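Retry 2 of 3 after timeout on previous attempt. Resubmitting structure tokens to design endpoint.
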């Protein structure tokens, strides 16, 4: 079996320690953080049939969830931190030290899926973005209040639950009504991917964590 397929399988089976050891080895070898994110995400994606309203095999899904979180926290974070520490150029180091942008991120109200959001938050933190992670089940007004208080450049909203999508469009409207329409709203997560920027009234729809990071890194809030 290919090593990345093995990692997917270990996550899927909830073998947390083995998954961490496998990811660690792959990251020391020729695999990138992108490869690892893709493999662990694939590992969870195959569990969709064990996570329906009718058939909910909670233990299997939670064990896989734990394995994924451990790979993110123990391997991906470490790899990104090492990358930062190894920057040879002093100028680059100084530039990296001061976050220039702030992201307020959370999962929309009614939805408890937070693995994707956790991944995005981790990647952004190690890429010079100040991250305020609100958690899951977050109401529109909580996003808006935090974004204004923290002088955010971006609100990142995640949703994997189709029924929760209608609330998302109110984030931008509420920001606009309060005079903060220049804060960009970015959506991500499997349910959001099935929708459109227009329907959700957001500025950008990211199909994965790296697309989100590119957007945060390459755009600016027009203050
Ligand atoms: C793990 C999981 C759970 C776990 C969640 C644990 C946790 N802490 O997150 C638990 C067991 C709690 C759970 C519960 C339920 N689940 Co569930 N779950 C899943 C599963 C198997 C994997 C999701 C996952 O984490 N994937 C891995 C991450 C990394 O992927 P991701 O979130 O898409 O994130 C990536 C990108 O989308 C992006 N991204 C995500 N968010 C954001 C945000 C921004 C700003 C950006 C830039 C990018 C970004 O970055 C990530 C990396 O690229 C999916 C199946 C699937 N294929 O998605 C079902 C799934 C999401 N669940 C589903 C359901 C139905 C439920 C339950 C209702 C089941 C039940 N019987 O109660 C409950 C929901 C309760 C609730 N109110 O929310 C359905 C949702 C269907 C729908 N479209 O509405 C799915 C799709 C399975 C299915 N049957 O089709 N679930």
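Retry 2 succeeded. Sequence:
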């Amino acid at each position: 079996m290919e090593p990345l397929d093995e990692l997917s399988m270990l996550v899927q089976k909830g073998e947390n320690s083995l998954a961490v050891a496998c990811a660690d080895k792959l990251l020391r070898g020729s695999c990138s953080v992108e490869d690892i994110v893709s493999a662990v995400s694939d590992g969870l994606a195959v569990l969709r049939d064990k996570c329906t309203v009718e058939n909910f095999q909670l233990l299997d899904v939670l064990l896989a969830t734990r394995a994924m979180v451990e790979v993110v926290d123990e391997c991906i974070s470490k790899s990104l931190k090492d990358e930062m520490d190894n920057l040879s150029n002093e100028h680059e180091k100084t530039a990296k030290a001061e976050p220039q942008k702030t992201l307020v991120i959370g999962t929309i109200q009614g939805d408890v899926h937070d693995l994707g959001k956790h991944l995005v938050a981790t990647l952004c933190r190690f890429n010079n973005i100040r991250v305020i992670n609100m958690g899951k089940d977050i109401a529109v007004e909580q996003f808006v209040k935090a974004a204004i208080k923290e002088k955010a450049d971006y609100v990142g909203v995640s949703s994997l639950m189709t029924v929760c999508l209608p609330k998302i469009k109110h984030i931008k409207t509420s920001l606009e009504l309060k005079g903060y329409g220049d804060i960009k709203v970015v959506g991500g997560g499997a349910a959001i991917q099935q929708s459109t920027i227009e329907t959700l009234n957001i500025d950008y729809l990211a199909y994965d964590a790296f697309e989100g990071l590119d957007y945060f890194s390459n755009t600016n809030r027009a203050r």
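Attempt log closed. Residues 3-90 form a domain with the Methyltransferase, Methionine Synthase (B12-binding Domains); Chain A, domain 1 fold (CATH 1.10.1240.10).
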